[in-house]
Amino acid sequence: MTHQDTFLITYSDLLTVWQDWLDTIPHPPLDRWLKQRAKYQKRYHGGYRMAIDNAMMDAMRYRQLADALEHSFQDPGFDDWVGWDQSWSPNDTTEADPQHFWYWLQLRNEADWRLPEIAQQKARREHFAEFSQRVAQSADNALFLLWHGLRPGWEPALKRRAEKSGWSDDTLQHWIEQQTRRPPLWLRQVASKTSADDESLERALKRDGVIVRQYPVSLDGQTHTVHAAEGGNDVTRSDAFKAGRVEIQDAASQLICELVDVQPGQKIWDACAGAGGKTLTLASALGKKGAVIATDLHQYKLDELKKRAKRAAIANIRNFVWDGEAPLRLPIEIARQQGFDRILVDAPCTNAGTWRRNPDARWRLTPDNTKELHLLQFNLLDRAAKALRASGRLIYATCSWQVEENESVCHRFLEANPDFVLVKQTLLGAPGIDSDTMFCAVFSKA
């Protein structure tokens, strides 16, 4: 991958931001940290700040590769990368010489970050060329994963995913290569409220300097049109965004909402609503008939949903906190019809399917926290299912490609709930679409 940033950034500025990040314990999500930093650090502006942000994202994406390059430079004959990965920790990067670390990243990205001359620079460049040749010529999957920012120890999990989804070796390789590239900013067009909104979304955004393209996406034999912002001005500053005509929502997330199959007049429960991207989509599909109950563990996320619903002029959403510890106490109108027509459980997960946008998230994945998530995911799905009416539809979704968070949870749920039938389970997004990778399963209740 090559970055051709308009602004050439300096090593001193990179090192300042990098050190500030390392000193922030515990590390918050990098994208939020960078946004928060921009509010209070006025030193960097516009394109220059964006170039630094991109460099930081690359540092997260290739942090293990940089450590591996330094390790192999010190020990040229080393080749046990699976064994090395078992003892490697993201904390190892904090102990690395920052000049060496950033030099390896500069070579990997073909970037110009104005790094100072370092000791053995020519030898390091030659070693990098030899290493990249080994990646290109070798069938060593461990090296291939390292080169694309993935841990060698994840190979068994990736093979399980390929087997479940019927991926060929070429498809799996394509998905791995996608992990080095940030996907486009996907947009969802909000249904027009008045005849004054009949102007096409592309034309409205183009007037505000946002470059937008349409993409046809196939799902269950039907073609859906999705939009992506591919350059120009910030879409969130456009008149169309401020007027609630467009929302930012990944293409895979939009397809999950299609599988919910909302019909006007229905009562919907979005059990893990978060900030409400899917909630807004479901409520919009209802029109003025029906209602969405949105719940989440965190009140601050529901507060953000309220703001977004107000901007989009959507009034059929009610929200309140649900901790998932017990089945939901049904509102009167839902109890009257003996449960919800549709329930979406967009469960907390490792977010492994969003690594392209949030590369730092891949280093927070450990066997311990994934086991805890598997139990939480099952419990949320099992308890939410109690609120579904007969012949209703239950949808389970995650932002993860891992089989253990998806098909395995679904299998356990079916064993515990024989009155449910699996209608469909599928992986959405990458590798087929240039987006995040998400999972969705649809159950019906007899």
3D architecture notes:
Helices cover 43% and strands 18% of the residues. The chain is α/β, with parallel strands linked by helices. The strands form two sheets. It has a seven-stranded mixed beta sheet with strand order 7-6-5-8-9-11-10, with helices on both faces. Helix 4 crosses helix 6 (98-109) and helix 13 (251-260) packs across helix 14 (277-286). 38% of the residues are buried. Mean pLDDT is 90; it is low at 1-6.
Structural class: alpha/beta
Instruction: Indicate the low-confidence ranges by residue numbers.
Output: 1-6
Fraction of residues in helices? Answer: 40-55%
Q: Radius of gyration, Cα only, in angstroms?
A: 23 Å
Order of helices and strands: HHHHHHHHHHEHEEHEHEHEHEHEHEHEE
The largest β sheet comes out as: 7 strands, mixed
In terms of DSSP E residues, the strand content is: 15-25%
Quick summary:
This protein is an alpha/beta fold and 446 residues long.
Topology:
Elements (H helix, E strand, L loop, with lengths): L10 H13 L6 H11 L5 H16 L1 H12 L6 H7 L10 H12 L11 H17 L3 H7 L7 H11 L3 H10 L6 E5 L11 H7 L2 E10 L2 E11 L6 H4 L3 E3 L2 H10 L6 E4 L6 H10 L4 E6 L2 H13 L5 E5 L10 H5 L3 E7 L20 H19 L2 E11 L8 H10 L3 E10 L7 E9 L1
Parallel strand pairs: 5-6, 5-8, 6-7, 8-9
Antiparallel strand pairs: 1-3, 1-4, 2-3, 9-11, 10-11
Characteristics of this structure?
446 residues, alpha/beta, seven-stranded mixed beta sheet
